[in-house]
Amino acid sequence: MSWGNSLPLLILGSSLLPGLVIFFLPEERIVSRTILNLVGAFLKLVLVGVMLWGVLHGHQYEARLPLLPGLDLVFRSGPLSMLFVALSAGLWLLTTVYAIGYLEGSPHRSRFFGFFSLCVTATVGVALAGNLLTFLLFYELLTLATYPLIVHSGTEEARRAGRVYLNYTIAGGALLLLSTVWLYALTGTLEFTARGFLSGLDTSLHPTLILIFVLLIIGLGVKAALIPLHGWLPRAMVAPAPVSALLHAVAVVKAGAFGIVRVVYDVYGIEFAASLGVTLPLAILASVTIIYASLRALFQDDLKRRLAYSTVSQVSYIALGVALAGPIATIGGLVHLVHQGVQKITLFFCAGNLAKTLGIHKVSEMNGVGRRMPWTMAAFTIGAFGMIGAPPLVGFISKWYLGMGALDAGQNWVIFVLAGSSLLNAAYFLPILHRAWFKAPPDVWPHERSFGQRETAWALLAPPVITAALTLVLGLLASAPFSPLEWARFIAAREYAP
């Protein structure tokens, strides 16, 4: 195997090997654990950068590992894979820095960072999967690696949330396994292809393929938090803030949404999926999820639960863009994979800062917090306006392309969904900002920690400031070379090429 073809395995190993070593480190080996975490995260980012440059210049990287007769584990680069891999690698580095600061002095850090590394390894495996079998194995590894992070605090509430999470995700995984075996029995292959590998099957199998599509969407919809499969996500907010950021912006929820993209484009093919009539119901389900979750967010006083329902809504934009079955909408959905991640991780970092520094967990406790923590709340403000879709932030770019894509596809009703969603976004974010910036602060915060002249620890403050800056810069430079928007255009051009 050449160095180039081994590159996917090196990217996987850059988080897997440090994670395995960290498991065996004593708790007091803080410096060693920090070095392993940061070296692994930096190395992964460098390797992903090398692969990204290669893919841009026409190179393809593929590694095959025999698993069963006729079935290999396949890791393959491609434009769609690289979009998700680049997002995961970049945000993992920032989340690692944040987690190091957030968990300072807490117990079981070696266990936490070990599973943390396994989680990102599984996410990268999902992104680079070259066939449905590889996707399935790493998708389920992600379930197992995430569970210890959700129950990390060890409280009864955390354990209950973990049980709910497992119940949902294992059931979804079972449906995904059933669908995978069924497809292999029908076709004899599970290889992802640019136009899907199912379109050539006999028309008599079309009802069966529609049923399998439904099973796949249900299985993937658990992690993507499509209603009514979203119930685990708000409960999982008992996890530490770095885990919440990981769940919502980098790993679990994104893996589900990415899986839906894979099924529509690389299993069925967009033209074949549309001809089966399965894309419109998916678009309707995504739209209902967008509005329902936004309404639920309005009534959440717990800050992280409000953000969780916001995620349920926002991630469905990705499925909506794909399901509209048009090149412009595809661009909007794919670029939102990146844009939502950058915005949402900013908001969860800020929520963690408020909890760690002042003991604030509820919206009703945020009066005047902008005066006490101006940098944190400035980052939160940018992330919130991005979610609303205010120009020139990245959220506006996503919604603009989704709206234009809906008109191009003749689905004008989607415009009302997007407008309603933006209004609801404003309704649950603007009151927070009003409280934080314009109301008088209390005499005593719920549980304040002192950091001297700083508003909080640098490791907690730097990541949200950086991601907030990205929310602005990626919006202002949306049409620049190498931007997520240009990369999404590149993918859409390949998918809809004559």
Defining key terms:
498 residues, mainly alpha, 2 domains, two-stranded antiparallel ribbon, 20 helices, 73% helix, 3% strand
Description:
The protein has helices spanning 3-23, 30-56, 79-102, 109-128, 132-150, 156-187, 206-224, 232-235, 241-250, 252-268, 270-276, 279-298, 303-323, 327-358, 369-372, 374-388, 394-408, 413-438, 458-476, 484-495, and strands spanning 62-68, 71-76. α10 (252-268) packs parallel to α13. It folds into 2 domains: 1-271, no CATH class; 278-498, no CATH class. The protein starts with a helix and ends with a helix. A hairpin with a 2-residue loop joins β1 (62-68) and β2 (71-76). 73% of the residues lie in helices and 3% in strands. The radius of gyration is 22 Å and the shape is globular. It has 498 residues and is mostly helical. A two-stranded antiparallel ribbon has the order 1-2.
Largest sheet: 2 strands, antiparallel
What is the chain-wise order of helices and strands?
A: HHEEHHHHHHHHHHHHHHHHHH
* Sheet with most strands: strand arrangement: 1-2
Structural class: mainly alpha
Average pLDDT reading: 91
Percent of residues in β-strands: under 5%
Work out the radius of gyration. 22 Å
Any chance you could write out the topology, listing elements then pairs?
Elements (H helix, E strand, L loop, with lengths): L2 H21 L6 H27 L5 E7 L2 E6 L2 H24 L6 H20 L3 H19 L5 H32 L18 H19 L7 H4 L5 H10 L1 H17 L1 H7 L2 H20 L4 H21 L3 H32 L10 H4 L1 H15 L5 H15 L4 H26 L19 H19 L7 H12 L3
Antiparallel strand pairs: 1-2
Helix pairs in contact: 1-2, 1-4, 2-3, 3-4, 3-9, 3-14, 3-19, 4-5, 5-6, 5-10, 6-7, 7-10, 9-10, 9-14, 10-11, 10-13, 12-13, 12-18, 13-14, 14-16, 14-17, 14-19, 14-20, 16-18, 16-19, 17-18, 17-19
